[in-house]
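User: Hey, quick favor. My workstation is busy. Could you predict this chain's structure for me?
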Amino acid sequence: MEQETNRVGKVWYSHESSRWAVGIGASCFILLTPVWGSQCPDWTVLNIAHRGGIVPGYAENTLAAYRRAISYGVDIIEIDLRGTRDGEVIILHDETLERTTDGRGKVTDHTLGELKQLNAGSGESIPSYAEVLDLVADTGVKLLLDIKVSPVLDKGKVVRLTESHDAVLDVIVGVRTLGDLRQFRRLNPNIRTLGFIRRPEDIAYFVAGGIDIIRLWPEWIRADKEIVRKVHGLGKPVWTTAGDAPREVLEELIRSGVNGILSDLPEVTSRVMAGFEARCRKPQ
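Assistant: No problem, here it is.
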């Protein structure tokens, strides 16, 4: 694959979508544009479907939810990875089964075959990671993997599945610990990483460890209106988890300079960004 360089000569992977490159790799570019309070942002904000979107009629973290997110034109789908008793990789947010399925007990106490028999909502089954990779192949939609802390999640298998689906450049691995960051960088240094940091003080540690993207909570951004600029100053894009935040909160986050928004309602994010585009469109 041909490489490209940004304005300071740092090498980053090339991709057919410049929008994806701006959001992930071109750290120098994003530093030049986001300004707190800008009414007409001229940087790219990626629309990320949190658990595929959490709305009635579409059970979270199911193939149906992911298909719906794709139909709304999202850039990225965030999914939660867990390990099974027999070493397979499945998608489920919770450590236990009760909230989102008709099963009981811990995910790690069940085999993939047993989990596949459960109803994950609206007749959907719990998807495997391989099934999700197959679903998004050739759609242009990327995956953000939320790596849950688990004694049985085989991180090597996560990377091997990603590689076997030729999806290394289409996946971002979200980690919560520096140990996981180091392990994924050893397994495949070409896979992009995002830090689900627990507190703002952890930013410097993850940046020093080689993280590619930093996730900040909205309340941190509201409390410190310089925090996004500080992370950009370290050469890293900022994504934020907005949950089911209403339109006005999403607009505030975009004006703060974030580069990606994880939302339960990706269609609302789409409308907000379309509104910015309509208001800020320059006359021909």
